Amino acid sequence: MSSDRRLGSALKAVVSEVYEAEPRTAAKSALMNENRRRVFEYLAWHPCCTTAEVARALSVSCPTAAWHLAKLVEAGYAIGISRGRDRKYCAAGMGLADAETATLAALADPGASRVFLEAIATPGLTAAQLARKVGVGNARRAIRDLVAANLLVAVEDGRYRRYYPGEAASSLEKNAARRLREFRKRLLRRIEADRLSPEVRAAPGDVVEIDVRFGGERATMRLPGTSLLAGRLGSIN
Amino acid sequence: MQKIPSGVYGLNALLDGGINEHTTTVVIGSPGAGKTTFATQFLRRGLEIGEDAVFITLDEVPAEIIKNAKLMGWDDAESYIESGNMVFVDAGGKQFSNFIRKELADFVREWEGHAARIVIDPLTPVLWSVKEKYEQRELVSFLLRQTRKIGTVLCTLEEHGVVADLSAPELIIPMYLGDNVIHLRYASHEHPEHRELKIIKCRNSKHSRSWHPYGIVRGAGLFVRREKQEPVRVADRARVQAEIRRVVDRIAPEGKLNARSLSHLMRAVETIAGESASDADALEVLSLVLEEYGLEQ
After folding, report:
1. Cβ–Cβ of A18/B98 closer than 8 Å?
2. ipTM of the complex
3. Does A20 contact B95 at a Cβ distance shorter than 8 Å?
């Protein structure tokens, strides 16, 4: 039996992401709108992001981002997860377990991801040192959230409490390549159901490109190849 | 073929020792017949011996199922959910049938060789999600052939219309395709209520071919009686309790059961004692419960 995953929870994740709706007709494919395609790509690279984050990153208004997200969810290309106050969005078909969603959600905060990167670059810093390095006002809150998600662990050395990278990120990345392969397989099937003919190309770096053709129109989507965190953290190894 | 205990008191003997592992069982019954109770007992028994359990519910919400399971004496159902040993998958019929078509093959490839207990309750919405009979058959056949590779599967089927007719197409298809078929015949309009169970088929087993009366006792669950005779009602509570104390004194120190099984058994036995004034014969149910745990008197 695999140590960290169980059959039941894996089944639950897959079933919950199956599209309830019948595939739309080709003329209405959600991905043929360029802005919406950009939103989808953003979700694939930044799982568990909020509407506000999408709007900021793509320089569109919040209502526009919300509209595209709603359309993607409706067409079965994205899923919405209610976590805490905010609704977070993921590309559909990634099969993320609850713990993984929590890890990704904790890193969605830009302050938290900067603190996390510093802790990887220089393990064993104190909270005050981390706050000084990243210059984030509420670094302490970010640290607390990172510890809660097991992205950081606190170690007391008798005088100071020092922070080291926890297990969460590496255990997420351990399965990421396989997850993303399955994600792309599902995505291709979903795109085919829209009667678009997708074509996959490996691209330089950790990127997979999918060409989508629709009549004379042609578009390329760039999706993560082997890492679920690269979109947020860049290459951390 | 490996036999596993069904969790339904008195049934294993009629099934030639239990349910064959990695097979599919179809349980048919009208509303109130006890299909979901049957299914929860099946999962609970597996959990007791360390197997994983998946309850795919296409109809009721998990909270409702847990509530009813508790009424049947499964007080610690939630602890299995918290530990991740039992998972509820709450899906719509169409959604689940899309899963079967698009994802199931990949999923089974990944998890092949596992031995979980899987319940689909009820299977009926899956059948109704497609129009053509041919497609229904394809879908159910694929579902049953695939899922048994990752565990032992139990599907319930709603019986509509005339009880015990069993000729409706939504019954025929799964009855042909399942490895085992058990019919719970329950005539709710008759008075007194009349419950009988028959094993219609059980592949590779010398199973019973008769109708057997069955009952549902609060606190213990479904039990199947061997003979069709009036239950001997033991009105004498003191006698029942004395008998139970004798049994408990004998079992507890022997260490034949693991802690979980023992505590379930004790709870069932205690509630049976409390219900001794009801329709069921407490001592008969007690002996069926003991038999389920391999503790014949």
Report:
1. yes
2. 0.82
3. yes
